[in-house]
Specification:
The protein is mainly beta and about 120 residues long. About 0% of the residues lie in helices and about 60% in strands.
Length: about 120
């Protein structure tokens, strides 16, 4: 019923930038919190940034000042602008969203992920 599709991943040199997008589609009435998580090989998935429907944001300490999360509620889309990338940012980045169906049911969804690789 609901799909989250990420895009924008790729290979970039340290110090470079990438912009990720995630679009929620399907039987959606509204989208509440949306966030970005990442998981590096051999590590647990961790929160990168999250934004509420009202636009408030929170960031992991490791990305503060470098990453910016934003959203377009009309498009059910969340973005992650990543600047000053470091090799330790290399991971699969996953979109996550709390979605309200038209029947008022609230469910949480994950995207399939997009690979971000930062070379030294």
């Amino acid at each position: 019923q609901v799909q989250l599709v990420e895009s924008g991943g790729g290979l970039v040199q340290a110090g470079g930038s990438l912009s990720l997008s995630c679009v929620a589609s399907g039987s959606i009435f509204s989208v509440d919190a949306m966030g970005w998580y990442r998981q590096a090989l051999g590590k647990q998935r961790e929160l990168v940034a999250v934004t509420t429907s009202a636009g408030t944001t929170s960031y992991a300490d490791s990305v503060k000042g470098r990453f910016t999360i934003s959203r377009d509620n009309a498009k059910n889309t969340v973005y992650l602008q990543m600047n000053s990338l470091k090799p330790e940012d290399t991971a699969v980045y996953y979109c996550n969203a709390d979605v309200y169906w038209f029947n008022s049911r609230r469910l949480n969804y994950w995207g399939q992920g997009t690979q971000v690789t930062v070379s030294s």
